User: Fold Protein disulfide-isomerase from Hypsibius exemplaris.
Amino acid sequence: MFKLLSIVCLAAFVVAEIKEEENVLVLGTDNFEEALSLYPDILVEFYAPWCGHCKSLAPEYAKAATKLQEEGSKLKLAKVDATVESELAQKYGVRGYPTLKFFHDGKDSEYNGPRQAEGIVSWLKKKTGFPATKLADVEAAQKFVADREVAVIGFFESEESDEAKAFLDAVRAFDDIEFGFATDKAVAGEYKASGNKVILLKKFDEGRADFEGDFAKDKLVEFVKGNSLPLLIEFNQQSAQRIFSGELKNHLLIFMSKEAENFNKVNESTRELAKGYKNKLLFVFVNTDVEENSRITEFFGLQKEDFPAVRLISLADQLVKYKPDVAELNPEKLKVFVDDYLAGKLKPHLNTQDVPADWDKAPVKVLVGKNFDEVALDKTKDVLVEFYAPWCGHCKKLVPIYDELAEKLADRKDIVIAKMDSTANELEHTKIESFPTIKLYKKGDNQVVDYNGERTLEGMLKFIESGGEVGKAAPEDEEEEDLEKEDADEKPVKDEL
Ligand SMILES: *[C@@H]1O[C@H](CO)[C@@H](O)[C@H](O)[C@H]1NC(C)=O
Assistant:
């Protein structure tokens, strides 16, 4: 009795300890765990005080918290200043601001829901209420299935069973798939389901997949994820988000024309192959006849004559590309390629053009992947390199200034002014984040200094003459905000992937 009492008192004490601002809990390392144990369902925003998106979310967030509070809901909203609570931010993998995480019984998942008060509230209610559609009779079930590309139904003898609970937990892990729930015998009979059973019905590929195995949340989530996407997904504006922001970070892309004589054969054999790699690798088809797809083909450095082509990408930390030795789309060879990749046996593929015959004729030298190190890392010279994209407006504006700079310094034997088309050439040691990027590779020790001054003749001259001192990198903490400015430099296509 005494023990129970002290726990109750302790809980009351802890509640009083957590500060609230407009009904939003203010959390840090010292009270985070306590908040999680007091509130089984809690949405946490990791923010930075200077971040623009965070500022616009704040009033909506407070409104949602207040609404829930007024309704007497158990749902809670909280915030963490990630610039102060860096330990917490790191623990939960916060990379950008704001990052929202939903905690259910202490377990976190990414929140990608709406950013408006109403939307936040209804998202939370769906997540914490009964998350599936109850299918009372055969007619309701048939309609539920007919209306959806993908429908998952759980059949259970009782709503209270452990199996049903595991299923409902799995359901809460999804935002974009709808789930049905049936306890009616006639509904189960209609779908040939006996006992506790989960099936996935889809309007493509094999049409139906039956869950086999133990009813555990993770197993069920894996089953739904592995079976709800087409075996071979066509890349387009709608699917891009699902493909590239999904959890599967390994993608095999096939670039070919849908008009190609062997398209149906390739489609068939690739889908067959893909069956063996569910939850390991996504198979993506890029139709090279579609004009909009030229950005993605360009990103891979592919030209018309290269099609059909295959590339494999890993999006884990940064984007890494792999290229099979074989050009043909032979399923056996593709399988070997994929298996080698998964076994970690492949070396990344870097795009490069051939060195142009006249690369050093003009004042601005032309670098490509193949000659970059030889020229830029020449220890006897200061080498200034502009990394550009042919489509980038800021780069075009820079051309006359950069040419003038090179002409001015043409007599200097110890200085090289160079440029590289970064859409067609990649370097293992340098990843370009925006266009144009200007770097100085210093003589002597090959130290690399970024130029962040104004892109004027005087500015760049001073930068070179000072050995990279005048106009070098701006302080890091200003960078993130820069990306939100309208005049921010243009980003390579990989950021859109
Ligand atoms: C591949 O074939 C299937 C079955 O005919 C079809 O549903 C699917 O749309 C095809 N895939 C593509 C990318 O066209």
Observations:
- The chain is about 35% helix and 20% strand.
- The domain at 364-496 is CATH 3.40.30.10 (Glutaredoxin).
- The pocket of 2-acetamido-2-deoxy-beta-D-glucopyranose is lined by residues 204, 232, 234, 267, 285 (CB under 6 Å).
- The chain has four domains: 2-125, 130-227, 232-342, 364-496.
